């Protein structure tokens, strides 16, 4: 999974891609929590980063739901 996704990068993605990235981030968070519980986690900062990434994805999805942000499709004329 790409590290450091920004809201701007997420806003240009389509809904299916957002759902896929959300699923991947949740799986990663689960694995990180499991590692933390068993004492095998090396980077505690990654936990925070993944939680924030999930929050960004949910924020972009909610913006679209409310109509705050719309997805602009690129069209080729020619």
Structure description:
It is a single chain. The chain has 3 helices and no strands. The protein is an all-alpha fold. The chain has one domain: Helix Hairpins, CATH 1.10.287.310. The longest helix is centred in the middle third of the chain and has 24 residues, at 15-38. The radius of gyration is 15 Å and the shape is elongated. The mean pLDDT is 87.
Q: What brief labels describe this structure?
A:
78 residues; 0% strand; ribosomal protein; 3 helices; elongated; mainly alpha; Helix Hairpins
List the helices and strands and how they pair.
Elements: H1 7-11, H2 15-38, H3 44-66
Helix pairs in contact: 2-3
Whole-number average pLDDT?
A: 87
What's the order of the H and E elements? HHH
Rg from C-alpha positions?
A: 15 Å
Main pleated sheet = none
Apparent shape: elongated
Number of strands: 0
- Beta percentage is under 5%
GO molecular function: structural constituent of ribosome
InterPro entries: Ribosomal_protein_uL29, Ribosomal_uL29, Ribosomal_uL29_CS, Ribosomal_uL29_sf
Pfam families: Ribosomal_L29 (PF00831)
Protein name: Large ribosomal subunit protein uL29
């Amino acid at each position: 999974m790409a590290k450091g996704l920004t809201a701007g990068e997420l806003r240009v993605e389509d809904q299916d891609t957002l759902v896929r990235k959300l699923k991947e981030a949740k799986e990663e968070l689960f694995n990180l929590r499991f590692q933390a519980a068993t004492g095998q986690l090396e980077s505690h900062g990654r936990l925070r980063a993944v939680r924030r990434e999930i929050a960004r994805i949910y924020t972009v999805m909610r913006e679209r739901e409310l109509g705050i942000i719309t997805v602009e499709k690129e069209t080729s004329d020619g």
